[in-house]
Amino acid sequence: MQEKASPKLAVSGLKVYYFTDGGTLRAVDGVNFQILGNESLGIVGESACGKSTLGASLMRSLQFPGRIVEGSMVLDNRDLSKMPSKEFDGSVRWKRIAMVFQGAMNVLDPVYTIGSQLREILHEHEFQGDIARKISESLKSVGLDDSVAKRYPHELSGGMKQRVVIAMALLMDPELLIADEPTTALDVLVQSQIIDLLKKLRQEKGISVILITHDLAIVSQIADSIAIMYAGQLVEMGSAQEVYRDPKHPYTQALIAAVPKLRSSEKEIHFVAGRPPSLINPPEGCRFYDRCPHAMDICRKNPPAFERKTGYVHCWLYEKKSET
Ligand SMILES: Nc1ncnc2c1ncn2[C@@H]1O[C@H](COP(=O)(O)OP(=O)(O)OP(=O)(O)O)[C@@H](O)[C@H]1O
Ligand SMILES: [Mg+2]
């Protein structure tokens, strides 16, 4: 039997809260997942379920008033959440873990050329090599011609700008790239080109990718594993094939039903009915209770993680099955 590969990054019991004037908002509330070397993980869920907060936590780039309050994020036996800031800034952020933040392509500085923005990042990191060559190589690695270095952001298409921000994130050769909604606001053709680029980066550079998206159809094109996030928690995780073909959690089932089927004659798009709960006062027990077609009395108690073949599902429907 093949030995199980050890995880590159293991996140356990992670809780990240925003301490707002209106109360404590539990954006990430007890999240567990692992990512293996060269694997790609898709994190999927509706708006405001905590996806970007989870990504920013791994980069320790949380916005005020957010704070990691509990849990661990272990990379090579070191808990990143406890690492002194100076050490994290000097040796992990951008160098080992990099992130394409949500909407980053819209905040490229309009008054500087792409080349000078790339150069600035290299200066900030005290890059010692041949800067012009590095810029040209990094543009090529994301499928752009090196003449792009002379252009200003407004001269580029959305797809080109997205490639530029991916190149920026990769400048210091990280081993894990977190891409937060990198295809949102791009047309379908460009979306699939960006996904192909992420696949190529994985194959050629061996980079692990965490892809954050609200779009389950996008994630199914690239992810080895899928984690489904709902109201600050991961409700289901497993290999992409298993989650997609055999979704266990009623929320995952509803998300999959909402994916428009290309070849289907059905014109109607299904949405997941109802709204997620407040993260300031989330209900005790399963947070999907109010929207779940299978809700039972026991669902008012917090569902533990029931193991499935390649991951887990947090849902009382599987209580008996996992005991056998
Ligand atoms: N700086 C902040 N201060 C207070 N609350 C915040 C802050 N940033 C995010 N939140 C709240 O935390 C929750 C999770 O937000 P987050 O941006 O992580 O969700 P998301 O899943 O990335 O959503 P989207 O799909 O819309 O990008 C939301 O309720 C949001 O309002
Ligand atoms: Mg987000």
Structural class comes to alpha/beta
Helix content, binned percent: 25-40%
Note the gap between the termini: 23 Å
Count every beta strand, where a strand is a DSSP E run of 2 or more residues: 12
Order of helices and strands: EEEHEEHEHHHEHEHEEHHEEH
Unreliable stretches: none
Strand arrangement within the widest β-sheet reads: 6-7-8-3-9-10-12-11
Question: What is the number of helical segments per DSSP (H or I, 4+ residues)?
Answer: 10
What number of domains? 1
The CATH homologous superfamily name equals P-loop containing nucleotide triphosphate hydrolases
Give the class-level CATH name.
Alpha Beta
Report the mean per-residue pLDDT as an integer. Answer: 92
| Portion in strands | 15-25%
What ligands does this structure carry?
Answer: adenosine-5'-triphosphate, magnesium ion
The CATH topology turns out to be Rossmann fold
**Rg for CA atoms:** 20 Å
